[in-house]
Amino acid sequence: MFLRVFPASDAVRHELFERIVQRADAHDGAFSRNWVVEASGNPLLAFRIGSKIAGGEALTIAAAELRDLPDLLPLGTLYSRVTRHLWTELIADYEDENPDKRGAVA
Q: Whole-structure pTM over 0.90, yes or no?
């Protein structure tokens, strides 16, 4: 909703991209090339992301391609799908870093 209501800003674009890249690095094995292409909503990325590329590298390439589009929505959608895909791992990481908050986020 945020991406539909407020105008795209370079700061938001940068933040979304950086968070996707961080998740690509931290959770490299969680992504297949096909998942990344599907999550990007852009089937043409299948041509940009070679068949031998997978994992975090595929996700980083997709994020870079979407970051350069004039519309911020595709990058925001990819961010949302990555977060949903990794949700249980992200919660576990958060709780490991904040033991006093264990069970607070569901």
A: no
